[in-house]
Amino acid sequence: MLEENFKQDILNIEKISIIPNLLHVICQSTGMGFAAIARVTEDRWITCASEDHLEFGLKPGDELEVKTTICDSIRNDRKAVVIDNVSEDPDYHDHHTPAMYKLQSYISMPIIRKDGSFFGTLCAIDPKPNSLKEFKVREMFKLFAELISFHLEAIEQAQANETLINKKNNLLKEKEVEKKEAYKILSDTEKKLIEKNISLEKMNTELEAFNYISSHDLQEPLRKIQFFTDIIEREEENKLSDKAKTAFNKIRNSAFRMQNLINDLLTYSKTKFDERKFETKNLNNITKEVIDDLFEEIENKNVQFDYNDLGELSIIEFQFRQLLYNLISNSIKFASPDRPLIIKLSSEIIVGSKSEHEKLSLNKNYSKITIADNGIGFDQSYSEKIFGLFQSLHTKTLKSTGIGLTIVKKIVENHNGFIKAEGALDQGAKFEIFIPVE
User: What is the pLDDT of residues 79-124, one digit of tens each?
Assistant: First the structure.
């Protein structure tokens, strides 16, 4: 029976949705009959995932004796092993592993976690000789191993964060009664300090959940993945099957989406910590700048805008420009293919007592900014969910990372305001923003 930690390693690999495509691409592009990801320790070699055209017989959870494999030496020196033809290889022609498993070609790349620890190997074998020492093959394996390592890090970090949050929640539950009793005797000033600390702790917890991803360093391997998959597909186009080409496109699109995700995470972070410098700005000018920035998308979709005098407002200019950019680009992304897209913007000053929005103060004035479109819309029952971090109602496309509207909501909150979403399927979406004014 496998220990729980090895079962978790297999489960984590299964959670990486691109793994089957990676293994399929390896087999299709190299001609190797068997490809696998193995968890390798000092005394264990365990299959985590495989594609088998040789009836080699290894499936997730199956083991080989680690001493019978070449992966044992890879674990020690952290270097790839590549063999084109065992019979002609000076180092491995008498090695026990090829003889035992009847191999003639072999390639294995170490999978190293971000913290430097060794996870296992990405490997492929075949009973016939093959050309594996070519630059493009080695680079493909290297990049795929880095990609697996990145996803493992993300999954393991998310699990660690979940464990940490659960521990914190359990501690809070244990002291909940005690806190309620103590809270009753606190002064208003002390209560405000406690509420501020709770808010800061919540902010720190959010950062723990995604900060490890939002690094510029992650973008370089993603660019390399896109670059080298392009090379392999272009140079090996005649050898690749339609399935392999489709797999390459999925890998490229996944890398592109991850790059967008990183950029959006960094933007989300800025909306929380940038210096809040409020200035009175003309909203028409900012809207025009955003439309200019989206010129190509607007031309491609033949978008029509309907807005007049949006007035002036005291805002954090950088953040408000990002807000309008996200909402307008969101409308463009989810335009209906059946009709021209029309985006309407309007602004008016209202009194809180005359609005149905329950969060507005009755005796305050608000600038109500409305952005509406006639796109594909959304089900009104999801009007709150769409503002959640990583939430997207259109996950089957590469159009959305699920962060754009979260950024919008955070910017509105930074302006001490509120936002309301209304939608109807195949009719359009409308966002109403309420910003308090003097």
Answer: 999 999 999 999 999 999 999 999 999 999 999 998 899 999 999 9
pLDDT of residue 397: 44
d(CA 104, CA 352): 78
Mean pLDDT highest for which of 73-82, 181-190, 396-405?
73-82
Give pLDDT tens digits for 20-60.
989 999 999 899 999 999 999 999 999 999 999 999 999 99
* Closest to 53 in 3D by CA, of 32, 38, 37: 32
In this prediction, residues 192-204 reach a mean pLDDT of 64
Name the least confident of 4-18, 104-118, 176-190: 176-190
Q: Indicate the pTM of the whole model.
A: 0.48
Task: Report the alpha-carbon distance of residue 292 to residue 341 in Å, rounded.
Answer: 17
3-state secondary structure labels for all residues of the chain: CCCHHHHHHHHHHHCCCCHHHHHHHHHHHHCCCEEEEEEECCCCEEEEEEEECCCCCCCCCCEECHHHCCHHHHHHHCCCEEECCHHHCCCCCCCHHHHHHCCCEEEEEEEECCCCCEEEEEEEEECCCCCCCCHHHHHHHHHHHHHHHHHHHHHHHHHHHHHHHHHHHHHHHHCHHHHHHHHHCCCHHHHHHHHHHHHHHHHHHHHHHHCCCCCHHHHHHHHHHHHHHHHHHHHCCCCCCHHHHHHHHHHHHHHHHHHHHHHHHHHHHHHHHCCCCEEEEEHHHHHHHHHHHCHHHHHHHCCEEECCCCCEEEEEHHHHHHHHHHHHHHHHHCCCCCCCCEEEEEEEEEEHHHCCCCCCCCCCEEEEEEEEECCCCCCHHHCCHHHCCCCCCCCCCCCCCCCHHHHHHHHHHHCCCEEEEEEECCCEEEEEEEEEEC
d(Cα 261, Cα 93) in Å, to the nearest integer?
47
